[in-house]
Amino acid sequence: MMLKNSSSPFWKRPQYETLIKNKWDIIVIMLGTNDAHNTCSAPAARKGCSSDWNVDCGGPNATSLANCRFAEDFKAMVDLVKGLGTTPAGPKVFAMTPPPLMSSNTGFPTMQTTINTLLPKLYPLMTSANHGVEGLIDMFAAFGGVADWQEKFPSSCVLNSTWHSCPLWCDRQSCDQCHPDDNGYAYMAKVVYAGLGF
Known about the structure:
Layout: H1 14-20, E1 26-29, H2 69-81, E2 92-97, H3 111-129, E3 133-138, H4 139-142, H5 149-152, H6 182-195
Parallel strand pairs: 1-2, 2-3
C-alpha cells in the first residue's frame, strides 16, 4: 500500500528494503490497488485502515490533492527515489495508473469505484504536481478502463466475454478480475516498455 498509515504499507515491506539498498536508472511507481481496500467504513475493512475514499482526495467524483494522504505519501516516495540513481541526476521516475478492477467485491463495496474512478483521476494530478516525475503510464486505459466503466464493463470477465480486454484478465488458469493473466502481464510489459520511450 502507498499509504504509510495502513495495514500493510510498502514502506515496511521487504521490497522497500530492496528499493532503498540499490541504485536505479528507471523507477516506475504503481501503488493503489491494495489501498483501495482501505475504506474504514467497509464491512470487511482491514485492521489499521486509515482512509475513507468517499471523502479523501475529494472522493471519486471531485478528486483533488486536498486532504489527500495518498498524494502526500506518493510525493514522499518520489522524493525518496530521486536520490537512488546510478548517476547524480537521479533515476528517471515514472508513475503508472493501476489497471481497472473488472468486478466488484462485496466485502469492499467502494473498492471498484476507488480503482476505476478515483485513481485514474488522482494519478495525473499527482504526476503533474511532482516535478521529479518524467511521465505517466496509463495502465488503466491500456487494460480497457474507461470513464463510464459502470455502464460499459461486463458484470465480470469470463472466458468468451465480449469485453475487448477480458482476455488480459481471464484464461483457463486465472480469472480473479483483479490480477491479469499471463497474457495480461506480457501485455503490461509491452505498455511499460512503450511508456518508457523505448
